[in-house]
Specification:
D-Maltodextrin-Binding Protein, domain 2, single chain, 340 residues, metal-binding, alpha/beta
Length: 340
């Protein structure tokens, strides 16, 4: 008979208990995870890890920026062993703030592609997200929108919707343009695109998809999986109908962002944290995280038909490290351009 143990999932005000069969001869081990990912489906991946290793997972979920600030306050008393964050800026900023530590893992070096990991070995990507454009063909001519820079065209005056400047996804997109096009071209693009915005800046990607579908604007910029989740009915029938009125336009090459993980500087369960990070970055773990959320795993595309219908994408080759380096300048240029 196997001994019954539990993984405890804590979300600040809520605790989730999952029964997991762990081998009776396993020693009492655990790993404490601070996660900025907000997907219930992640828990099945943690459960699989616990069953295979006998290591209990304690999970605290919150917004990425909140977790970073919490770790700064906690300092050496931090409970975190492993931190999971979404967006290049978030994970690189955590490293810059001295919240992570360098680790040695041949598995991580082999499983995570070049450009999606820290040269200093402090963080590693786990899933990929493509920043796409979402358009209403009844409002704009989709044949004339092929790249992010096309949103600065005067013909789109009053037809562009954008998420607010605080969005790390948009900050990384601007950083991406700085690397690909240079500062002068990026300034010109920002000026033209912001002048085409007539509606207030939106708080989230889903709100943009709804606005585009309702013809409140003609085109916006979102992460691909938000559209996929809506089309799949994850948010309900009404949002599925909204999404069906829009068309996904993927630039070629496209800006690709990530979710990533790193071992906390003051981890008390370092070896267990490395084991979990290795599992999450493995083919099995990365697919386990990405498949149900409509993200892309590290080395393949999501095989869900909804995502496949968006068409193929080619990453533009900009590294996550480069995105992090340009984050501060990107924020400053966005502010100067009037991106609120």
């Amino acid at each position: 008979m196997q001994k019954l143990k539990k993984i405890i999932f804590s979300v600040f005000t809520c605790t989730f208990l999952l029964n997991v069969n762990i081998p009776a001869n396993s020693t009492e081990k655990e790993v404490k995870v601070y996660s900025g990912r907000h997907y219930n489906t992640d828990r099945s991946v943690f459960k699989k890890f616990a069953e295979e290793t006998g290591i209990k997972v304690r999970l605290i979920e919150a917004a990425g920026i909140s977790l970073i600030e919490r770790m700064k306050r906690e300092g050496k008393n931090s409970q975190a062993d492993l931190i999971l964050l979404v967006d290049a800026a978030r994970i690189t900023n955590a490293a810059k703030a001295g919240l992570l530590q360098s680790i040695e893992s041949s598995n991580l070096e082999n499983d995570v592609p070049v450009g999606l990991k820290d040269p200093g070995k402090e963080w590693y990507a786990l899933t990929r997200r493509v920043r796409v454009m979402i358009a209403n063909p009844k409002v704009v001519d989709v044949s004339k929108i092929n790249d992010y820079t096309d949103l600065a065209d005067p013909s789109l005056k009053g037809k562009v919707c954008l998420r607010n400047r605080k969005s790390p996804y948009n900050q990384s997109l601007v950083a991406n343009q700085l690397i690909n096009k240079g500062e002068l071209a990026t300034k010109a693009w920002l000026s033209g695109m912001i002048s085409n915005v007539s509606k207030p800046f939106f708080p989230g990607d889903i709100a943009i998809i709804r606005a585009v579908s309702k013809k409140k604007c003609g085109v916006g910029i979102v992460n691909h999986y938000y559209v996929a989740r809506m089309l799949a009915g994850v948010n309900g029938r009404r949002d599925a109908l909204y999404a069906k009125k829009t068309e996904v336009l993927t630039p070629n090459p496209a800006h690709v962002n990530i979710s990533a993980g790193g071992v906390a500087k003051y981890a008390t369960n370092k070896n267990e944290a490395i084991q979990l990070l290795e599992f999450l970055a493995s083919s099995e773990g990365s697919k386990g995280l990405a498949a149900p959320t409509f993200e892309h795993p590290l080395k393949e595309v999501n095989q869900n038909q909804i995502v496949k219908n968006f068409g193929e994408f080619t990453p533009d080759g900009v590294t996550v490290e480069e995105l992090g380096e340009k984050n501060s300048l990107a924020i400053r240029l966005m502010k100067d351009a009037g991106w609120n």
